[in-house]
Design brief:
2 copies of one chain form a homodimer.
Chain A (H helix, E strand, L loop, with lengths): L2 E3 L8 E4 L2 H10 L7 E5 L4 E10 L3 E10 L7 E7 L3 H14 L3 E6 L14 H14 L7 E2 L3 E2 H7 L5 E5 L8 H8 L6 E6 L7 H9 L3 E3 L11 H15 L3
Parallel strand pairs in A: 1-3, 6-7, 6-11, 7-8, 7-9, 10-11, 10-12
Antiparallel strand pairs in A: 2-5, 3-4, 4-5
Helix pairs in contact in A: 2-3, 2-7
Chain lengths: 246, 246
Amino acid sequence: MQRYFINKNVTENSIIIDDKNNCHHIKDVMRMSVGDKIIILTNDKKEYLCKIDSITNIVMLSILESNINNNELDCFTTIAHALVRREKKEEVLRRLVELGCSEYVPVEMERSIVKINKLNENIDRIHTIVKECSEQSERGLLMKVCNAIKFNNFINNYKDYDYKFVCYENSGRKDDYSLNNYLNNLKGKKILCVIGPEGGFSDNEINLLIDNGFVCIGLGKRILRTETAPLFIMSLISYQSGVKNV
Amino acid sequence: MQRYFINKNVTENSIIIDDKNNCHHIKDVMRMSVGDKIIILTNDKKEYLCKIDSITNIVMLSILESNINNNELDCFTTIAHALVRREKKEEVLRRLVELGCSEYVPVEMERSIVKINKLNENIDRIHTIVKECSEQSERGLLMKVCNAIKFNNFINNYKDYDYKFVCYENSGRKDDYSLNNYLNNLKGKKILCVIGPEGGFSDNEINLLIDNGFVCIGLGKRILRTETAPLFIMSLISYQSGVKNV
């Protein structure tokens, strides 16, 4: 059934959809009629099964059922990703939404090819991507996409986590076993994973991360690209906290 | 160090690179000179550290060291994927190579949007993608990309596996725990995972798969796209057989 995230309040028995994009999708893309059913999500893990009462320039719904969306992972994961080109970033965002990621932070690092002062981003486009992927993958919460920040600001502002990992290809394998220990104990945890740019972290960045309590983890013997590493680690977290324990 | 897969035999002390693409890359892209070192891979888990002796229309190398490439997973994984559009397929191929997949089989299913008789594929392009990704991710073997086949041929020809999984969103969660048991016992195993098209498997296909010994596995509560599911399952296999056990 078609799902729509809306950001307006909901009354006890009815919902009004008045934002352009959702109304357009219901009327012109899905060509729905009065009496059709849809699911409305309010970005607080609640979902409402609704019946369409009228379609004009707004859509009026009556609520048939309200439920808790149970599709979110039982941990909060922030992926901090080196700035990458727009197409790569959008591809990563799509996959991370499906895999249950909570938050995405683009970080300018020494060897990032893309720099903050040359960013030319369409924020509306990013929000549309996240919203549509969230609806399709049946999430109960929208992944938050933060504004890009510089590495030092990232280190200073992202401190309040239970686990802080840095995916580092030169970490050797000494910490891999500990990754397993962490993965077996994700419930209710706040997790932060940092992934470097195409050229890798600088020594200075790695030292700063370690000084700030980050644990170096390896992702196997092969070299993963900067756009693959987030999907790999998020797949493991998703499996451990969403599939394995069901 | 730059890596090149070649498909010619190697003598005891020297290697000749005579294929156009590798020669072009060494001469014109990397602008290498006599005395520079490169690594040659022969698609049999062997790798040779070499020194360039001469560069003309061919490249002559002397072997300094021969080693076993140790970056392959200790299991053999075939991903059988519903036919998808070319861009999606190429994206999936890139990721699967990095994650250590052994073989990729495109399968025409009832609800595949793309059909075999309308395929217009550039086989050279696919081989170049796999070769370059394998070199960059430091693999010792090239992932095999099979020709697209129809579902019934797939069922009849892919039988000789230790584990056969079908990723099925309606499987409920009853089999998830058993997935975990399989994942803990991958060493030396031949694994086959089937992933359906955008519209999902037909009932007929699911029944045929189950009749042929496939185990339905769920990939979590959210709905994964057909281009995300292969990366999810291959990440789990890669982690379990390549990272966790090191």
